[in-house]
Amino acid sequence: xxxxxxxxxxxxxxxxxxxxxxxxxxxxxxxxxxxxxxxxxxxxxxxxxxxxxxxxxxxxxxxxxx
Length: 66
What we know:
Blueprint: E1 4-13, E2 18-26, H1 35-51, E3 55-64
Antiparallel strand pairs: 1-2, 1-3
C-alpha cells in the first residue's frame, strides 16, 4: 500500500507569489490514470495560460494518506 497520494498542480503567479489554481491526481511516476484525465489536465492548463493574467507552471506534489 502506498503511503502517499500524488498530484500535478497548476500554479499561477499574479505578482504576489505562486498560488495553487488546480490539482489532478496522478500515480507515483506522475502519469495520469487514463487518457481522459491527461486531456482534462492539459485543457485546463491551456485555458489558464490563454485567459489568465499571470504566469503559470506545473509542479508535482505528494501528500500523506490518512
